[in-house]
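[Discussion] Sanity-checking designs against the backbone

I'm trying to build intuition for which residues belong where. Below is a structure token string of 149 positions. I'd appreciate it if someone posts a full sequence so I can compare it with mine line by line.
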């Protein structure tokens, strides 16, 4: 599968295209990638007072996400907040972005470290000792489950 790696400069350029739409708006991000995109916008334009960040979606006028892939997330958010605008760094429903393949954002970790982080969270959630031995045990169990598919 084709992969497209975006740099911070790519993200900035894509977000700057929406700057006119964001003037005097209150923004909020779809967890996780959308929140990072929101903070990127604020970082790029500085503290100009023209843009505010909402901690709750109902207080926002614009919802921002990192990617519109199938469009389901956008649809779900606009159903809940029909008067909000919805903006994404990458919108694969457009001609410009439809052939990007798998998009990797600059804030994303490599697959292996993300995998380890997820296992760590599961161990912590279950009040188990987080150490390399336990992480390897969980990986082994997961790999054994894959064999039985």
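Best answer:
Here's mine. Compare freely.
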């Amino acid at each position: 599968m084709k992969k497209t790696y975006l740099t911070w400069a790519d993200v900035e350029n894509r977000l700057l295209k929406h700057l006119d739409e964001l003037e005097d708006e209150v923004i909020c991000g779809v967890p996780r990638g959308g929140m990072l995109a929101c903070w990127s916008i604020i970082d790029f334009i500085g503290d100009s007072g023209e843009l505010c960040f909402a901690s709750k979606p109902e207080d926002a006028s614009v919802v921002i996400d990192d990617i519109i892939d199938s469009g389901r997330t956008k649809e779900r958010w606009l159903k809940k907040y029909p008067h909000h605008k919805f903006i994404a760094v990458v919108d694969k429903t457009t001609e410009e972005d439809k052939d990007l393949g798998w998009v990797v954002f600059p804030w994303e970790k490599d697959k292996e470290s993300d995998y380890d982080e997820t296992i760590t969270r599961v161990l912590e959630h279950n009040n188990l000792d987080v150490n390399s031995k336990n992480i390897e045990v969980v990986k082994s169990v997961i790999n054994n489950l894959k064999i039985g598919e």
